[in-house]
Design brief:
Length: 500
C-alpha cells in the first residue's frame, strides 16, 4: 500500500480542500444567491455533461486503465497508444455532439413546461461534455503513469475556485445570470486545458501520425473491451446522475426540486473522498496484478482497501449526519426539505466504499463482459424504483434518494458475489465487523448528546466527541493497521515520540 498511501494522502488533502470549496459554492453561495431552479440548472449542467463524456469517450478511459501497462515504454512513445486513444475519443465527441443536436426537438417537447431553463441552456452541455471527455482520457493516461496529484488539483480545486469567482461576480451584480452561466461553463472546462499543459510539461504528450505495432496487434481486443466499457461506464454514469435527471423530467417544477436534491447530494460527496483518492492509485495496481497474475497481492489490496474505506467512510457519514441540522441552518429554509436525501444517498455511498475494489477487479479481469450485465440490470432497477418512489408513491426527491440507495446495495451485492465465486476473493474480515460495531455505537451516541444553544459550539463539541469515540478504539485496539501507521506518521511529524 506504499504508493497508495503516499499519493492517496496527498489526493485526500487536495480533495478535502475541493470539498471545502465545493461546500462554499454549492451549499452556501449557490442557495444564497440563486433560486432553487437556477441551482438545479447549474448542477444539472454538470451532471448531464458527465453522462455525455462517458458515452463520447467510447470506452477509451477504461481501455487505457486496463491495457496501458502492456504499452508503457517512454523510449518508444508508449507505442503510439495515446494517438490511437485520442483519435477514437475525438470520433466519439463528434458523434455524441451530433446526437445532442438531433435530440433538441424531443427535449423541447418533454422539458419546456416543467424545466424551461433546461431547454434554454441545453447546448451548453456540449462544450462541458467535450472538455470533460478529454479530461477523463488524459487523466486515465496519467493515472496509468502514476501521475495522479495534478489532475485531482485541477478537477477538485482550480475549477471550484473559478466557480467561486463566477458566483461572487454574480452576487456583486457585476454579471447577470446569463453571463454567470457562461462563466460557470468556462470555469468547468479549464481542467482539460490544465491537464494538457501538465502532459506537455512531463513530455508525455506522445501524439503523432504513426501508431505502433503493439496497438495494431492488440486493437481488436481493446476495441471489444472498449465496446463493453462504453456501455458499462456510461451506464454507471447514467445511474449516478439518473435520479436528478428524473426529478427534472418527472416532477412539476423539476429544476426547483433538483436544485434542493443536488445540493444535499453534493454534501454526501465528502463521504466518498478517501475512497476516490485511493481508487485512483489502486486501479492501475489492480491492472498490473492481473498482468502479473499476482492474485495474492490483489486480495491483500482488496481487503486493506475495503476496511480502510469502510472506517473512514463510516466516520465521515456519522460526523456529517450528526451536524447536518447545523449545516442546513446556514442556507435558506427550503433546502432543509432535503435532509433525508442526505441520509439515503449517504448510506448508498457508504455501501460503495464498503464494497471496495469489486468493480475494478471485474472490469480489469478477463470476465469484464459480465460487468455490462450488472450495469444494464442496475439501470433497469434504478429507473423502475425511481419511477415507483417518485411518481407512484409520490415521495419526490426522497423517493429518488431511496431508489438510488437500494440500487447501489443490489448492484454491489451482485458484484461482491461474482468476485467471490469467480476469483475466490472477498474483501471482508473481522476488522470490518469491529468497525461496524464501533460505528453503530457512535451513531447512537450522537442522539444522547444535548443540542447546545450556539450552533458553532454544538458543531465543535459534537465533532470532537464523535472523533474521539470513533478513533480511540480503532487505534488502541489496532483494528485497522493502516490507520495506526498514518497516526504514527502524524505523531512523528509533530515530533511526538509516543506511538500507537
Amino acid at each position: 500500500m506504499g504508493i497508495v498511501q503516499r499519493d492517496g494522502f496527498k489526493i485526500t488533502l487536495i480533495s478535502y480542500l475541493g470539498i471545502v470549496l465545493g461546500y462554499i459554492n454549492k451549499a452556501l453561495l449557490f442557495p444564497k444567491f440563486l433560486k432553487p431552479d437556477e441551482v438545479g440548472l447549474a448542477n444539472t449542467l454538470l451532471n448531464l455533461s458527465v453522462v455525455y463524456a462517458q458515452f463520447s469517450a467510447l470506452g477509451m478511459t477504461s481501455v487505457t486503465l486496463r491495457f496501458f501497462p502492456f504499452f508503457r515504454d517512454r523510449e518508444r512513445a508508449h507505442h503510439g497508444f495515446l494517438t490511437w486513444a485520442t483519435l477514437i475519443t475525438t470520433v466519439g465527441v463528434i458523434v455524441v455532439s451530433l446526437l445532442f443536436f438531433l435530440l433538441k426537438p424531443w427535449v423541447i417537447a418533454e422539458f419546456s413546461e416543467n424545466s424551461p431553463l433546461f431547454v434554454k441552456y441545453y447546448y451548453y452541455f456540449i462544450p462541458l461534455g467535450a472538455s470533460f471527455t478529454y479530461f477523463l482520457l488524459f487523466d486515465a493516461y496519467l493515472r496509468s503513469l502514476l501521475k495522479t496529484v495534478v489532475p485531482v488539483l485541477a478537477n477538485e480545486v482550480i475549477i471550484r475556485l473559478l466557480t467561486t469567482v463566477s458566483i461572487t461576480l454574480y452576487a456583486l451584480d457585476v454579471v447577470d445570470f446569463h453571463q454567470f452561466v457562461i462563466l460557470y461553463t468556462i470555469s468547468n472546462c479549464v481542467h482539460a486545458l490544465m491537464i494538457l499543459v501538465y502532459m506537455l510539461y512531463l513530455r508525455q504528450m506522445h501524439l503523432g501520425p504513426k501508431i505502433g505495432y503493439r496497438v495494431q496487434k492488440m486493437k481488436k481486443g481493446m476495441l471489444l473491451f472498449g465496446l463493453i466499457a462504453i456501455l458499462s461506464s456510461a451506464g454507471n454514469s447514467l445511474i449516478a446522475n439518473l435520479d436528478s435527471l428524473l426529478l427534472v423530467g418527472l416532477m412539476e417544477n423539476g429544476l426547483y426540486w433538483a436544485g434542493i436534491y443536488t445540493t444535499l447530494f453534493f454534501m454526501t460527496t465528502v463521504i466518498f473522498v478517501p475512497y476516490r483518492a485511493m481508487l485512483r492509485i489502486a486501479t492501475p495496481l489492480v491492472a498490473a496484478h492481473w498482468k502479473d497474475n499476482a492474485l495474492d497481492k490483489m486480495e491483500e489490496l482488496y481487503k486493506k482497501f475495503t476496511v480502510v474505506n469502510l472506517a473512514l467512510g463510516a466516520f465521515i457519514f456519522i460526523g456529517m449526519w450528526a451536524n447536518l441540522d447545523n449545516l442546513l441552518s446556514f442556507i435558506p429554509d427550503e433546502f432543509a426539505a432535503g435532509k433525508y436525501v442526505f441520509l439515503f444517498i449517504g448510506i448508498g455511498r457508504l455501501i460503495d466504499a464498503m464494497a471496495g475494489l469489486n468493480g475494478v477487479i471485474v472490469i480489469t479481469s478477463n470476465k469484464f463482459r459480465y460487468d455490462l450485465f450488472f450495469t444494464i440490470a442496475l439501470i433497469v432497477i434504478t429507473i423502475l424504483t425511481s419511477y415507483l418512489f417518485i411518481v407512484t408513491f409520490g415521495w419526490g426527491m426522497n423517493g429518488a434518494a431511496i431508489a438510488t440507495g437500494v440500487s447501489l446495495l443490489l448492484f454491489n451485492a451482485a458484484r461482491l458475489i461474482f468476485v467471490q465465486v469467480n476469483f475466490k476473493m472477498q474483501p471482508f474480515s473481522m476488522a470490518c465487523l469491529y468497525v461496524f460495531l464501533i460505528a453503530g455505537a457512535v451513531f447512537g451516541l450522537n442522539y444522547l448528546l444535548p443540542q447546545l444553544p450556539n450552533v458553532f459550539l454544538d458543531m465543535a463539541v459534537r465533532s470532537v466527541l464523535i472523533t474521539i469515540a470513533f478513533f480511540a478504539p480503532l487505534i488502541l485496539l489496532r483494528i485497522v493497521p493502516d490507520i495506526n501507521q498514518f497516526t504514527n506518521k502524524l505523531l512523528a511529524a509533530a515530533r511526538i515520540r509516543w506511538r500507537v
